[in-house]
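We modelled the chain as a single entity of 442 amino acids. Its sequence is:
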Amino acid sequence: MSAVTRRLGDAPRADTLDAAERMSVDELRALQLRRLQWTLRRAYDCVPHYRAAFDAAGVRPDDCRELADIAKYPMTTKADLRDNYPYGMFAVPRADVRRIHASSGTTGRPTVVGYTARDIENWADLVARSLRAAGGRPGHRVHNAYGYGLFTGGLGAHYGIERLGATAVPVSGGMTPRQVQLIMDFSPDVIMVTPSYLLTIIDEFERQGIDPRSSSLKVGVFGAEPWTEQMRCEIEERMDIHAVDIYGLSEVMGPGVSQECVETKDGLHIWEDHFLPEVVDPLDGSVLPDGEEGELLFTALTKEALPIIRYRTRDLTRLLPGTARPGMRRMERITGRSDDMIILRGVNLFPTQVEEIVLQTAGLAPHFQLVLTTEGRMDALGVRVEARHDTPSDRREAASREVVAAVKDRVGVSVTCEVVDPDTLERSVGKLQRLVDRRAAG
């Protein structure tokens, strides 16, 4: 781990935490069961999709007598939300919905999520709790570079910043030179942004001749895409901030479902008073014990407008005991998505595996892209990665060979690697698309 010299003051005292953060495991499980039973009844009574799905599975809300009974109930998928577009999954009259968010819909119909006034209050509370766990405090200024609009990131973070008692700087994404100017002018303590875009902002600092480590920022709260421990080290070293992870997804709530605590940086504590997590085998759906890696499922325990039961996130992780918040389990940082997995000549490969190798290779910047093509009857994978500005040509050639060798050694597949000039690859201000599939044209 890189050394971070920023001081945040003392870790939060127990008496400053939310009541739920101080619950014993037994108290928390009892609360979860009561809220789960309420959610199952609400979904069955108010959402035709869930009534039909429960009936088809031969279960009723009253069949849930303990938390483990959740495995009896059918899972919810993104396709279910799309099939009921736009309002079919809502459990309240549309007049009671105070806000609507939606996914981009780039691969089909968007998934639409509604929130009642109480849903928005709970969301703000949980983002405020997450920010406090990340090191944010009342009075801090928070540079919010998540996108505003139908995407949940910008507004979800914004309401939580204000609920914490901090000052929101609602910058949104894009206009990277202006991001640097506002950071230097407004002197924020915290930045909320995707990790890949923060690296673009760091590059812009350096392009303007400003040392990123000289900024006022102390903490970066990063989410919306998988990232690695190597990327954390890169960010902390180049900007001298604490880099912590936040997790959420619009179908379950938005940002603030779980949060990494700055004092431990050892995975994300799930706010289990509002969300019941499971990890299942992504192939057969069987529930896996804590500690085993699989696909993450969430049941929302307090949502009024859109109760969601056993939602398949497609994110891969494992559940671990709590540390900084002992009563609440942690989820390991997302290692990838089951639907982002590349099967190349029978070998499973995730973009995060390549990211680790790129960040460990001297002379390479953390900006890369995977390109899938077809050669004859076989799929082929190429890695395009930018060189750092001061990397000489002979080092580029050596770095390319090192990436090819490392992927072969660690993952077990052969790839090609092209080291391109700095600022060649398209930047993203939101979620980074690491994979380009050109097989259809190959």
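As a brief sanity check on the tokenised model: The chain has a mean pLDDT of 92. The longest helix spans residues 25-46.
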